[in-house]
Amino acid sequence: MAKPEKKHLFVEGNDDLYAVAQLMGHHVQWGDKKPEWPVVIKAIGSVAEILEEEFISTTLTSSTVEILGIMIDADGEFHSRWNAIRRECIASFPLIPADLPQDGLVLENADKKRVGIWIMPDNTSKGMIETFLAYLVPNDQAGMWDRAKNIVKEVRAAGAPCRECHQDKANIHTWLAWQDPPGEVFGNAIVQKILDAKSPHAAQYVAWFKRLYQL
To answer: In angstroms, rounded to a whole number, what is the distance separating the alpha carbons of residues 78 and 110?
Structure first.
């Protein structure tokens, strides 16, 4: 089994990094400090940097990585982003399927290396990590969540410059602004139980993560 320092996950930014760490900390043994984590999570900076030519393929051939997970947002470009990742992986993983499985990709090659792919929010839809985190809004907050979404629609209609493609971001940040404490970043919102890490809607992602890293 791969050692923790050889298990890597690439994400876009630090908000994604800490959201994943705090979410998984509710489901597997997870240390309080980064060196104690069972997986090395790296914020690469942007989806463009993750998908840069040869970045993934070079990482897959590195002796320092035995398991590589890649988690990016679909935004409105699900198919092009999946195809870009697939092209980067196919030399090391020739059996990679043409379509991303709905429960996330986990694949092992003849050299016993493993690769995993998750495209937020659910491996099929457009959206982003904020779309996924909206699934973790507790049931008893459903009314306030609906109100937050409606307010975002109203202010956009009144001329707020928030673009439609960022509406999911505006929704979750509006709702988080009304919580106690207000305006927590995603990881802290999970720690404070403002977002529900044990929501059934998180189960598929959690199962993918555990399967990939053999936790």
So the answer is: 28
Among residues 38, 18, 46, the alpha carbon closest in space to that of 133 is found at 18
Percent of the chain with pLDDT over 90: 97
pLDDT at 121: 97
* Alpha-carbon distances of 101 from 7, 84, 122, 153, rounded to whole Å: 21, 16, 10, 33
Are the CB atoms for 92 and 108 separated by under 8 Å?
no
Tokens of 178: 């009304």
For the chain, the structural domain boundaries read 4-127+198-213, 130-191
Q: Residue 210 in contact with residue 27, Cβ under 8 Å?
A: yes
pLDDT for 148: 97
Torsion over CA: 29, 33, 37, 42 (sign): positive
4-127+198-213 folds as Rossmann fold (3.40.50)
Beta strands in 98-207 (DSSP E): 105-108, 114-120
pTM: 0.96
User: CA 149 from chain center: how many Å?
Assistant: 22
Q: Is beta strand 114-120 parallel, antiparallel or unpaired with respect to 105-108?
A: antiparallel
What span, in angstroms and rounded, lies between the C-alpha atoms of 150 and 169? 14
Tens digit of each residue's pLDDT (9 = 90 or more) over 138-181: 999 999 999 999 999 999 999 999 999 999 999 999 999 999 99
